Structure to design on (403 residues):
């Protein structure tokens, strides 16, 4: 029997949620059942070595390789100048400006696939729309309405796809509201976190974390992730006499602002910025509480990873937070209640529940099927997880009252 040929496309394999989700998916696929290829537009990411050996690698178009230092065509420098000019003269998203400039000179793969899967909005979707396949699926892992993509331009690309996969009900609803032309082709399928893989990686050696009570947050240092909310909550814990350390795993452009806030609240000893880690799980495993203080999330994979380690979980409100808290048994509290909620959860920990991989939907998701069946499957899985998790979502606004 001929195996279906799948091609996945992604921007890079740097540390990030979509990248981690894709790697987990590749590890879950049966190499005897699928002929799988992968095209990474920007090579050299921290997780390149984690790609399973059975996956065939497809070279990125020459323009992207030239950007990384390979010898390229003489027209490439001119194209880069045109991209810069277009960015100044238009309001296009940078990836739209790039692709609309280089599309006619791209040397795209000529092989035909059963299914092409663009595992992110933006450039992977634009490239995938021009490939040869019987079926095309685009993955969206962000609140599209909050993005800066030109929707009219994007509509022409998404017309080439048979299915648009949103990684949460919140993102699906937002997408259908703001892009009604996609309503007939959207499905909901969560980013994939394999609890057994997280638990195995958590056994790797790592430095010991200090503190009688340890809190961990994983996230990029930028305003969307809400890391700047941590110093105030930490100061409240310190004032209450809690002996703790709050470890932040991640890097980003707002590091200086976060460091300044840490000093301003005088919690330099309590709040530790550890930087990015390719494998954060051995550090997460040592914590007694996981906190996701985000303002915005495409999905919130780190919350499911914390649940895989059965850590107590607290989230501040962002799009997918209510569903994540229902699934895992976490608490949802407003940012101003974060300190009080942490104090309560450290004193009265409530371990979370791992969320299983929806194995039976993978084949249908990748190769097609009835949309209602896919949505019904996800809805049933969500109901089952909510029933098992129980009604442990704290009231948004006040948070739990410390005892």
């Amino acid at each position: 029997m001929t195996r279906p040929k799948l091609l996945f496309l992604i921007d890079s394999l740097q540390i990030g949620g979509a990248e981690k989700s894709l790697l987990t998916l590749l590890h879950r696929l049966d190499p005897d059942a699928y002929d799988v290829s992968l095209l990474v537009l920007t090579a050299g990411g921290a997780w390149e070595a984690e790609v399973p050996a059975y996956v065939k690698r497809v070279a990125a178009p020459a323009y992207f390789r030239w950007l990384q230092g390979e010898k390229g065509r003489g027209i490439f420098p001119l194209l880069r100048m045109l991209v810069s000019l277009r960015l100044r003269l238009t309001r296009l998203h940078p990836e739209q400006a790039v692709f609309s400039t280089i599309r006619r000179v791209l040397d795209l793969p000529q092989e035909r696939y059963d299914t092409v899967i663009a595992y992110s909005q933006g450039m992977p979707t634009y490239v995938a729309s021009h490939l040869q396949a019987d079926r095309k699926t685009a993955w969206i892992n962000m609140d599209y309405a909050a993005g800066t993509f030109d929707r009219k331009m994007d509509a022409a690309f998404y017309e080439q796809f048979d299915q648009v996969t949103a990684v949460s009900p919140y993102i699906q609803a937002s997408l259908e509201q703001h892009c009604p032309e996609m309503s007939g082709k959207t499905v909901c399928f969560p980013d994939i976190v394999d609890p057994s893989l997280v638990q195995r990686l958590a056994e790797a050696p790592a430095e010991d974390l200090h503190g009688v009570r340890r809190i961990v947050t994983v996230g990029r240092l930028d305003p969307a992730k809400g890391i700047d909310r941590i110093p105030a909550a930490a100061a409240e814990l310190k004032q209450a006499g809690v002996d703790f350390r709050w470890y932040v795993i991640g890097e980003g452009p707002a590091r200086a602002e976060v460091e300044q806030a840490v000093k301003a609240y005088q919690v330099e000893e309590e709040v530790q910025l550890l930087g990015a880690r390719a494998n954060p799980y051995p550090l997460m495993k040592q914590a007694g509480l996981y906190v996701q203080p985000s303002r915005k999330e495409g999905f919130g994979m780190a919350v499911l990873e914390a649940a895989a380690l059965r850590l107590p979980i607290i989230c501040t409100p962002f799009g997918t937070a209510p569903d994540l808290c229902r699934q895992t048994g976490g608490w949802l509290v407003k940012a101003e209640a974060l300190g009080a909620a942490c104090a309560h959860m450290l004193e009265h920990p409530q371990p979370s529940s791992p969320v299983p991989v929806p194995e039976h939907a993978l084949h249908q998701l990748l190769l097609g099927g009835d949309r209602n069946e896919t949505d019904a499957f996800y809805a049933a899985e969500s109901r089952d997880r909510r029933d098992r998790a129980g009604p442990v979502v704290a009231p948004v606004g006040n948070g739990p009252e410390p005892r």
